[in-house]
């Protein structure tokens, strides 16, 4: 009977607590020793074998590309350079359509087909300034003046000329002999003397003429020289290119290349630009801080910023709302389900280990993790459409699957006042004393207000007088004299009977003080100070001075007393400031104990 009653009470207590929202995510797989820490652009989900089983493709900073089929590693390959993005696209309409894997690395796009390296596309080199080209043409001649060429290159750099890496390396050489060797080493490559390559910063995929999953696609590439390149479906030629005002960092595409398309670009200058059919539109979104993530949600653009805020803009530039987060944003991605049902949601990973699911500005669910999420990818993994792949800072890998009956409708989230607001407060009944006090306040409101203001003024006056007296006697934390503000702080070092008082003195004003006397007083029966008075020659503004005051306890019983330190003025008798040091109980001398 007792157990039954206890169980009933426990159930009642649980029922009274607010019900915890069930997570819509199911744990599918976790590999703590995967050993690949990836950003969001380093992850890709694609049906690379055209068998309906979507693989996970990962690249990392260790120049590796790895493919997972289910929970096993199916393929791994070494890359020639550090990658910055990986994407899959369909270069032709085959039967069955087999996607192509593209890895952006340096100034090249590496193409993999059927899990084998197929080809690579190199971005066009940058145009070299004619001034720099003429200087190097003179340097490669026999009998050229190396020092004169060095000075000309240095002057060109100071005038704002963008130099190539070869010229920058040459200017880093200091002695003339090494400069001569550097120029001699460059002469055999006279035909390819000055070639400046750019670097890819981001990459996306744009459908060409059909809005289908297996339609022919094109690569959209952002580079360090502030360019957007659109490659054709074979990734061999540039179909279109656009010049931006800043270096792109995040790209989001929408539409078809042959019909109409929009490219939303977040750049390093803190602005968001829109490219429509190869033209940069005039409506520019200016952010308060640097962007850390960009996601397009229908006609809205969600931008995560470094100030822990996600801003939602209409694609024409109008701001809709903002979502304020408790900690910095790690990465963002879009959850999109189209087969079983139509649903979209925004997934945001925070640096405290939380992964949040938003529909609009409504928070739907939160997933807690034990590590910092560095990369997130949503799509179809295996045969499950609503899969979420998480890559952690420690190199771990986690896969979660969205429940098929999960409710992603943001309108179902409770908005407005909390339900506790409808519960009436337990207000006590009005007593006779309460009624008398309220009636007195109504009748004598003016007199009570005047009395209160008079007492408040008296209190302020008394406080000001006490503070002035405190500063006048030098007892305050800071004193002002001759336009200078002085601070003092003291610290006791030692266990006894030998002590040392470390005094820190700072002139916080704008005027220097000269010949400042310092006096130390204490109980002569307890302590002996060898030099109780001394002078400080000068106190420079904003400079902290350390003064050591030795002190010896002469009382065998080890008593304690206070030591007072005064900073006086060279011309006045009132101390500028003082500090009281409470001494600890002195330990007996170790030598005397033997």
TrEMBL record:
It comes from the Eukaryota. InterPro entries: BBS1, BBS1_N, GAE_BBS1, WD40_repeat_dom_sf. This is Bbs1 protein. It holds the Pfam family BBS1. Residues 486-587 form the Bardet-Biedl syndrome 1 protein GAE domain. GO terms for molecular function: patched binding; smoothened binding. Residues 25-276 form the Bardet-Biedl syndrome 1 N-terminal domain. It comes from Symbiodinium natans. GO terms for biological process: non-motile cilium assembly; protein localization to cilium. The gene is Bbs1. GO terms for cellular component: axoneme; BBSome; microtubule organizing center.
């Amino acid at each position: 009977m007792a157990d039954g009653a206890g169980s009933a009470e426990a159930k009642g207590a649980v029922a009274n607590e607010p019900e915890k929202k069930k997570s819509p995510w199911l744990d599918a797989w976790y590999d703590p020793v995967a050993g690949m820490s990836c950003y969001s652009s380093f992850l890709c989900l694609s049906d690379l074998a055209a068998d309906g089983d979507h693989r996970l493709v990962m690249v990392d900073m260790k120049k590796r590309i790895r493919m997972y089929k289910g929970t096993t590693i199916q393929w791994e390959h070494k890359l020639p350079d550090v990658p910055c993005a990986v994407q899959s696209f369909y270069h032709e309409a085959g039967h069955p359509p087999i996607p192509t894997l593209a890895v952006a690395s340096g100034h090249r796009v590496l193409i993999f087909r059927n899990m084998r390296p197929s080809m690579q596309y190199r971005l066009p080199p940058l145009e070299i300034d004619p001034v720099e080209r003429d200087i190097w043409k003179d340097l490669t001649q026999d009998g050229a003046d190396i020092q004169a060429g060095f000075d000309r290159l240095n002057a060109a750099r100071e005038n704002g000329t963008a130099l190539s890496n070869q010229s920058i390396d040459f200017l880093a050489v200091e002695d003339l002999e090494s400069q001569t060797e550097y120029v001699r080493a460059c002469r055999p490559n006279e035909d390819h003397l000055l070639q400046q390559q750019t670097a890819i910063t981001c990459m996306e995929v744009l459908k060409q003429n059909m809005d289908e999953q297996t339609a022919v696609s094109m690569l959209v590439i952002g580079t360090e020289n502030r360019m957007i390149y659109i490659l054709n479906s074979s990734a061999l030629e540039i179909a279109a290119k656009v010049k931006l005002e800043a270096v792109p960092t995040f790209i989001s595409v929408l539409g078809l290349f042959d019909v109409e398309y929009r490219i939303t670009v977040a750049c390093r200058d803190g602005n968001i630009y829109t490219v429509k059919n190869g033209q940069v539109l005039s409506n520019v979104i200016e952010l308060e801080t640097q962007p850390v993530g960009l996601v397009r949600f229908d006609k809205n653009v969600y931008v995560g910023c470094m100030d822990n805020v996600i801003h939602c803009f209409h694609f024409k530039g109008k701001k809709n709302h903002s979502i304020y987060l408790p900690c910095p944003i790690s990465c963002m991605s879009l959850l999109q389900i189209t087969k079983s049902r139509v649903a979209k949601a925004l997934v945001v990973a925070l640096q405290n280990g939380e992964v949040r699911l938003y529909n609009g500005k409504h928070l739907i669910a939160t997933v807690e993790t034990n590590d910092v999420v560095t990369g997130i990818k949503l799509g179809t993994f295996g045969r499950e459409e609503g899969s979420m792949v998480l890559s952690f800072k420690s190199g771990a890998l986690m896969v979660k699957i969205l429940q098929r009956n999960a409710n992603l409708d943001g309108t179902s989230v409770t908005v407005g006042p909390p339900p506790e607001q409808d519960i009436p407060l337990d207000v006590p009944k009005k007593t006779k004393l309460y009624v008398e006090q309220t009636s007195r306040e109504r009748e004598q409101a003016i007199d009570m207000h005047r009395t209160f203001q008079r007492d408040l003024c008296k209190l302020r006056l008394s406080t000001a007088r006490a503070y002035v007296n405190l500063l006048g006697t030098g007892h305050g934390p800071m004193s002002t004299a001759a336009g200078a503000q002085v601070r003092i702080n003291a610290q006791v070092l030692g266990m006894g009977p030998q002590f040392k008082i470390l005094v820190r003195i700072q002139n916080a004003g704008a005027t220097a003080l000269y010949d400042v006397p310092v006096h130390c007083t204490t109980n002569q029966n307890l302590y002996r100070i060898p030099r109780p008075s001394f002078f400080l020659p000068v106190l420079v503004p904003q400079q902290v001075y350390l003064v050591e005051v030795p002190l010896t306890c002469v009382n065998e019983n080890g008593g304690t007393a206070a030591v007072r330190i005064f900073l006086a003025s060279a011309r006045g008798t009132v101390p500028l400031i003082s500090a009281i040091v409470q001494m600890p109980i002195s330990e007996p001398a170790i030598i005397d104990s033997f």
